[in-house]
Amino acid sequence: MQVVIRIESERQEEELRSLDGWLRQEPAIRRTATVSLRTETAASGSMGGLIDSLGLIH
Prior knowledge:
Number of helices: 2
Distance between the termini: 5 Å
Largest sheet: 3 strands, antiparallel
C-alpha cells in the first residue's frame, strides 16, 4: 500500500519535514514502512523543486 500526504499551507515544506521526522521516530512505522519526502518537478532554469508531499509505503 502506498499513501501520499500533501499539506496545503504557507509552511507546507516545514510541516511535511516535521511530519517526516515524527513518522521516522515511530518504532512501528520504522519496522513496517518506508517514509520519503517528495519534491515537485523544478521549472526549467530553477535551482530545484520544493518539497510538496510525503510518501509512505507499507
